[in-house]
Fold:
Amino acid sequence: MIRIDGVTKSFGKRVAVDGLSLEIRSGEFFAVLGPNGAGKTTTIKMIAGLLKPTSGSVHVCGFDVQKEYIEAKRVMAYVPDQPYLYDKLSGLEFLHFVGDMYRLDGAERENEIDRLVELFSMKEWIRELTESYSHGMKQRVVLAATLLHKPKVIVVDEPLVGLDPHTARLVKEIFAAEAKRGCTLFMSTHVISIAEETAERIGIILDGKLRAVGTADELRRLAGIEAGLEEVFFKLTDGTGTNGHG
Amino acid sequence: MSDVAVLALLKWTDLRNRVRSIGQQSRFKIAVIALFSGVFWASLYRLFYHGLKFLNRAGPASQYLLDDLIGGTFYVFFFALMVMLVFSNAIICYSSFYKSRETAFLHTAPVRVESIFLYKFGEAVAFSSWAFVFLGTPLMAAYGRLFEAPWHFYFLSLLFFVAWMFIPAALGAFIAMAITSFLPRTRRQLIVGFALVVLAAIVVLVSKVLTIRGAGISADLRLVQEVYDSTSFSRNPLLPSSWIAKGILGLSRGNLPSAAFFFGVVAANALFLLGMAHAVSARLMRKGWYVSQEIRNNRKYPARTLVDRLFGPILVFVGRNVRHIVLKDLKSFIRDPVQWSQFLIFFGLLAIYFLNLRTFSYQEREMFWKNLIAQMNLLATSLTLATFASRFIFPQLSLEGRRFWIIGMMPMTREEILYGKLALSFTTSLLISEVLIGISSYMLRTPMELAILHAVALLGICLGVSGLAVGLGALYPNFAEDNPSKIVSGFGGTLNLVTSLAFVSLVLVLQAVPCFLYFGRASMSDGQFRTWVFGSMVAIAIVSLAACLVPLSLGMRAVRRLEV
Structure:
């Protein structure tokens, strides 16, 4: 579903992602872990087509993200860490706009929007302009918009930042349900417990390179310790952190 | 629905909701903005009408030259507008195509880049060209009234405007896409390079205008002829500005075939350029997007920079805390080329003009003319200052926005924050404007009394416009917005611009009265003139202190109550 082939991304002399290769299967929930500046967001943006790899290629559902970008985006959804909404549109108008963009049929769209409004408990305020929303409310609208066109691949950058415990739990449940439905999820986070709790496989990125990849148990074996994932993470990253642009 | 239609529908919904939001605002606010806009339009109309009437009355005997002279103002007017529109469109397109969060969002959606281009281009045209229509319509109305143009002149000239504004817009879009995609890869180099190219082009053209050979001209007719000749570049038939000027002149004189021909030329070129821009956008929108995402400023800054060393000692007259705020704001301003490139163009042009005053040989003319030119220079400097304060100082407090807690939590009073903004505005504007007016006075060899009066008037104006911008900026803050142009375009920004212009006009009138009575009508003795000048200075001091202190104290009260 997602194939990353030898991708390198440089910003001037600085290499943010260095020869990354990875394949995420259909219906898999994959989390990428790493300290600040490790290259997680750069990787996510290359999958979403917002950055062009300096070398290598990214395919989503068989479509080259650079060459067949319309087809790739039609089957994909991207949730950034800072959600973007139009201030002067209501949440409902925004959802309809996304429906138009993905050419969803009228009745199907109406039903799906109703379902998502109910699911994310947005009924009370969804007709208000988004400029009055809190961060958590905005994030819920963005997540609803993400699910609206039933994407085959969801790419998420730090999805739980700023969410209250109820919404965070809801989001985790929804992602799990989406994966069960056959949707592929690629999530970046630096919160180790979230990766351990939700993902089937975890990749650890450090200094733009993939240090380790596998299930939590496989990572434990690789690190050679029987401990929580936090300890495993520190062992595999030599307890280091990087500072820079991610 | 096609992706272009989806985006158009999005814009329509957004606009509709914005209009509804305006309806929910206070009626007083709407009435004030409408009134100010009406008064501003009417003032422009009167200015154009009397200017054209003056040219008509004071023009030379030759009717042939007179026609061309008034027509000549059209060519220069549209040429100047074209340069400004290309420049502003290029800047707006750059930030809209490559820096906006909405564009990033649209790039993740299944939308063709050409459609994103059309959507963002439409926005840029509207954003950059409304002022052109606002400036152009009073000129057309004044011209139409003076020369009793037929009724269809007003409607058809507006049609000309609408078609023509797509030409500089498309050129600006080309420039933004080409520069971002192919030229230097750091943001600073990009904007500095672009600003310098535009400035160089303007300098060449301005120098050409200023190169008048007529030292010691005795007859006004020759001066008029030379000014006319020196602006011949604006009548180059290959320039789009000459097409609209010829078309509108044709319309006003009832020459409909000529007007129709030039409308065809304008429309065909507008469509051609738009088509070309749309075609290249398929490649350059995405290429430029990727390049712009890689632009990063990796420059390392020492703890104390040249700004600290240079401006620290100048700011000895303010307290330690206030000085640190001023230095922080100065550094932020200097490191943002989008901000200072506009500033450079504003004041750079004035400096070039003042330094070239000798080419007109005004210093050899009668005192009446010297005074008139000195007054015009003071007017230009003051209006630029008022615009500068409204554009750069008014949004300063709003720009603290989400970062307000940083200075809000510091061991200092909130009043000191405003004093910091006031010190920043007053120091920078005073330094620049006094140098400019000093050059003007020196070049014109004006009498000492006049030079001192103008220096004092500018001191008062700097104080007043700074107080107004800081005070009203604190009274009407907008913490939700990061874009200074959007903060300025709100109610507070409009109120600030209008009150600043009114204040500047009052000070200019106060200083102009003794000058015109003495130099123009010679109706007072030297001693009486000095007394009048002193009285004028006292009046300017009172008005300026009031313009500074009243809004500042209101702003202080507002900032004390501020809850962020």
Remarks:
- Residues 212-218 of chain B have pLDDT under 50 and may be disordered.
- Chain B has two domains: 1-299, 310-342+365-438+447-564.
- The interface with chain A takes residues 1, 3, 6, 9-10, 13-14, 17-18, 21, 101-102, 104-105, 107-112, 185, 289-290, 293-294, 296, 298, 480 of chain B (CB under 8 Å).
- The two ends of chain B are 43 Å apart (CA to CA).
